[in-house]
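Give me the fold.
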Amino acid sequence: MNFENILIKQKDKLATIFINRPKKLNALNKKTIEELHIAFETLEDDSNIKVIIITGNGEKAFVAGADISEFANFSSNEGASLARRGQEILFNYIENLSTPVIAAVNGFALGGGLELAMACHFRIASNNAKMGLPEVSLGVIPGYGGTQRLPQLIGKGKAMELIMTASMIDAVEAKDYGLVNHITSQDELLSLAEKLASKIMKNSSVAIGSAIKAINDNFKDGINGYETEIEVFGASFDTEDFKEGTTAFLEKRTPNFPGI
């Protein structure tokens, strides 16, 4: 796959996506969002890929926000369309992938960058990371899911404060709030992401995809997450992964999940 604004590296069953606009601090523009959608769609369809890591190229930023120059003169209808399309093809799309996605946040993750990280299944950060949703300082609000996912992850009160003050928090605060799971040095960030990915890849990809769906359904209006859990739990019994996992357990050996 050849892209203008992103790079993809694959090693065995792991794919790492690098947002590659370092001179723009990896800001999200329309082209980058479209390319990311294609990349995630392609990797999701590849049965050999078990985990995806996303990070920013360079030492300064994961994604320092959206490319404001693209929408500074938009009308209200154009703004709503921008948010709707972005949520559909990238942010909501990532959240609902059955392939686990780890955000490795290096440096700034602001605005759309933090929204991208929050759409991933979980996040780790370098110790120089800075995160925030500064949109109200521009006279707009977070439009790529920020007002929804940030309260889910850190609680309503703290999310209200961060959004209304347009403040940035560092990696330590982000971990204290539950926004990121681990902090490490920038040099070790991808190594830690790969270590976590290797642990994930030892388990059933089918079961993991089902767990992602059940967890996500708990946060969707009109859907009973407990019912989803019951349904996908039951469906697990018909999978080859369940047969292999239980057989390996009883035989006291390491399972070799077929992924079906």
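The two ends are 26 Å apart (CA to CA).
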